[in-house]
Amino acid sequence: MFPRQVRLLNAGDYQSVFNDTSTKVFAGEFLLLARKHADSGRLGLIVSKKTDKRAVGRNRIKRVVRDSFRHHQELLNGLDIVFLARQGIRDVENPELHKRLEKAWKQLAKKAQKPIFEQKQRKSKQK
Q1: Residue 83 in contact with residue 45, Cβ under 8 Å?
Q2: Residue 87: HSE in the Cβ half-sphere, 13 Å Cα cutoff
């Protein structure tokens, strides 16, 4: 079960993450966007028909992501996260997707702990 308090429920919740993204992790077949939030960690899923035409495939991806998020919820406390599936994710098997998600959650948590000022400084040095 995935209770309401750990989900992004409406368009406004998703929009706030898109507009105020503090951390991004790109992992090839998916993208994680996050912003700091006072409550416990919440997750929103975007898996479009472009990623997999069959509902069975889209539901499999969402099920694996939810399960992985549930196992790493303590690590991701205080973040609103949007999982955005990209093309090619349907070819990734469940165990491999679990591994990639675990690595991405850890990267996201590590990046989110750094102050936003530090992240902006690093970006300006790269340009």
Answers
A1: yes
A2: 1
